[in-house]
Design goal:
Blueprint (H helix, E strand, L loop, with lengths): L3 H7 L4 H12 L5 H23 L1
Length: about 55
């Protein structure tokens, strides 16, 4: 029979898994909020440029 408490004490996570997790968490990823902010900024710049052309 497996004694889970003893097995958990013996457990040591693989270094590769920890390295992968660090790489994932430390990566600067663009999410949808960043994309929307960028699109809105670009639209504002274009709108301001069109408004100054009319003057």
């Amino acid at each position: 029979m497996i004694v889970f408490e003893e097995e958990i004490k013996k457990f040591h996570p693989c270094l590769e898994v920890e390295e992968v997790a660090d790489a994932i968490y430390n990566q600067d990823m663009t999410d949808m909020a960043d994309v929307l902010v960028s699109v809105v900024r670009e639209a504002k710049v274009e709108a301001e440029g069109k408004n100054t052309d009319k003057e």
